[in-house]
Q: What sequence folds into this?
């Protein structure tokens, strides 16, 4: 039983949490509906006030009419007594007595009705002020909600942009690193090739001015012009005549 009770408690807690999540997600809609319900109740209160005020007006009319009748009967009683007609005065007093009772009862009811009207008027006024204040606050809440949604969207887009920028920078760094590694490999290969062959020696001879490129026109021309510059005739090559053939 204890396990079942705990599971039931867990279910209630989960349901409450889920319900609270739904409520929080739709808080503005719920608030708007509650305000509409409050507005409907306020309209009903105004209707009720109108009815009460109408009833008070009608009650006052009855009291005024009865008061007039009572004043008339009072004058009749005074007239009868003035003429010494005690019996007539008593008959008229019999008519006045119930009217006075009704007048007192309805006057008390009218006073109670008027107090209710005053209370209801005060309640309606306070409710209207509260609703107006709440509407102002709700407008502010909606404006803040709209601004925060816009800010959240901008922040989300900015975060996505930063993520893409970071990814692009990482890709660029990897490419640059790979290119640097490739360049280092090529340079190392060239150094190995120079050290294993005549490349390094040729470089040093060329740097010392001792290595002349073959087939260079300037070098060929220099060989022909150098003897003249030293004051000697160029070397003459004598061609010997061919020996006579031996006659048999």
A:
């Amino acid at each position: 039983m204890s396990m079942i009770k705990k599971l039931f408690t867990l279910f209630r807690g989960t349901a409450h949490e889920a319900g609270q999540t739904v409520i929080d997600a739709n808080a503005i809609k719920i608030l708007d509906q509650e305000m509409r319900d409050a507005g409907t109740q306020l309209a009903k209160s105004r209707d009720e006030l109108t009815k009460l005020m109408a009833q008070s007006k009608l009650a006052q009319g009855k009291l005024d009419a009865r008061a007039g009748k009572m004043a008339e009967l009072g004058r009749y009683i005074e007239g009868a007594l003035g003429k010494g007609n005690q019996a007539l005065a008593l008959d008229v007093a019999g008519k006045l007595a119930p009217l006075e009772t009704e007048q007192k009862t309805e006057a008390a009811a009218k006073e109670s009705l008027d107090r209710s009207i005053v209370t209801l008027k005060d309640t309606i006024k306070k409710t209207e002020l509260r609703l107006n204040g709440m509407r102002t606050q709700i407008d502010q809440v909606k404006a803040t909600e709209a601004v925060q949604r816009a800010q959240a969207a901008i922040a989300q887009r900015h975060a996505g942009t930063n993520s893409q920028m970071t990814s692009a920078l990482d890709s660029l760094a990897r490419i640059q690193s790979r290119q640097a590694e490739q360049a280092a490999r090529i340079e190392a290969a060239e150094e190995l090739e120079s050290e294993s062959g005549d490349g390094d020696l040729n470089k040093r001879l060329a740097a010392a001015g001792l290595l002349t490129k073959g087939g260079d026109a300037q070098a060929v021309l220099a060989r022909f012009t150098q003897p003249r510059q030293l004051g000697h005739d160029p070397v003459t090559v004598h061609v010997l005549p061919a020996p006579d053939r031996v006659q048999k």
